Amino acid sequence: MPSIEIHALHRNGHLVDIHSTKEIGYSSYVTKVELALEEKYLPKHYSKYDGKEVSRCFDYDKDFTNHKEIWDLIQDKRLTRNERIVLGFYFTRSFVFGHKSELIEALKSFDKEHNTVTSCNRIAEIIENNNDEEHIGYRISNSSSDDIFGQKYNEETDEYTYYNFLQQNEHFDLFKYIEDIERNIASLQ
Question: For residue 99, is it left (φ>0), alpha (ψ between -120 and 50) or beta?
C-alpha cells in the first residue's frame, strides 16, 4: 500500500526526506480529503457502469474525468483557504515555500472542520517538529509513484542527478497558485 513521504525543501535546492514510512497511508490523507470535499461540495455521483451511487474517488475512468471534478474544486469559490491548501498540498508538482505556520494550521483544522479522521494532523505534527533552518518549504508525495523529483540516472555521465527546484521548474508554488485563484474569484464578484 502506498504511503506518504514528506520532503523538506533545502536552501540548496534539493529535496530532503524528513519522513517516509507506512505509518501515514496515502489513502488516509488523499482519499479521505477528497471524500470529505466531494461530500461537502459536489452533487451525488452515479456510476455509468451500474447506475449505483459511488464516490468519484472510486469510479475509475481512463482519463480521470470523475476524479478531476474533485481536483478542480481547488478553484471553487466555496472552498475555504484552508481547504484549498490541504487539497493542493498533495498535487504532484505542488511545493510550499515558506508559509509553514499557515500550512500547519490548514492541516490541523481539516479534520475538525469536516468531522473526519485523516492523517492531516500527523503530517502537521511532523512538519511542525522539523526545525531545521536550512529547510525553506515542504512537499509530500506518494511512495509508490515514479516521483518526478527523485534521482535520475544519466547514462552519458554514469551519474545520478537530483531535481533542484532553484534551477528547474517542473514544480509550482502552491501559495502563489492559491493567491492567483483567490484574485480571480474576487475579480468575478
Answer: left
